[in-house]
Amino acid sequence: MFVVIKIIESLLIPPGLFALTFALAGLFGLGRYRWLAKTNIAIALAIVIVSTQWFANLLLRPLESAYPQPKDPRGDAIVVLGGGFTTGTPDITGLGNLYGDSSVRLLAAAMLYRRLHIPILLSGGPNTRVGDHAYSFAAIGRRDLIALGVPNQMIWQEPNSRDTQENALFSAAILRAHHVQTPLLITSAYHMRRAMLDFAKAQVKAVPYPVGYLVNRTASHDAFGWLPSMQGLDDTTIAVREYFGIAATQIGVRG
Question: N or C: which end of the chain has fewer CB within 10 A?
Fold first, then answer.
């Protein structure tokens, strides 16, 4: 009964609902509009496939396996690439919150700092001003790191970058100014391949430290990975965006 409920649930909410709608339109139209009906059924199948966690994992796994997480990381600074944040939202230490990838990366940096006691460079904007407050990943992350016990003088900020390429370029200038030779680079595992390409182009010899893995290494949590879900579609979108970004970086287009 539990499995039946899961199947029904996946078909009554997007993207499963969209697939069901196209499938029904195709089935009802088979008698009169065969070409259109077949097109609708094909669209339904495509929606189902790209919305499954299994398909998303198929795309994500090579990205997340590109660089293993080092067991004994060594470096003279930690670079954290930013992600999403909200403005004007209440937090324990002020206004603005990190969410998703941003918070995972920041937590990893705080934990590495406890072990290595080296400076942390927070790279990420855009620097957004709302009223009297300026928001960026770097500014919010700095506040959170201080709350987690990292000394203010051990935190450097780069609050202006808008994409991975600018992360690399702007961070490179700060790292050179502080005579950093071998920074540890923290970003999500799926994003590390593109990040390393951009940092190499910026002539930074970074040591990759991937975090925030999306693909399970065991099968226990993938029992319903064959059902369409918004999470599956989101993860597929993440993977496709990364492959496009990698290709753009390799051919010299902004990625």
Answer: N
140 & 129 share domain: yes
* 59 phi, psi to nearest 5 deg: -80, -35
Q: Which residue reads 């949590």 in tokens?
A: 221
If one counts the domains in the chain, the total is 2
Question: Does 90 lie in the same domain as 27?
Answer: no
Tens of pLDDT, residues 212-241: 999 998 876 666 778 899 999 999 999 999
pLDDT digits (tens, 9 = 90+) for 180-222: 999 999 999 999 999 999 999 999 999 999 999 999 988 766 6
- pTM passes above 0.85: yes
Q: Which residues contact 137 (CB under 8 A, 6 or more apart)?
A: 82, 83, 85, 98, 102, 122, 123, 124, 125, 159
Q: Alpha-carbon distance 202 to 39, whole Å?
A: 46
| CATH code of residue 115 | 3.40.50.620
Tally Cβ neighbours within 10 Å of residue 226: 15
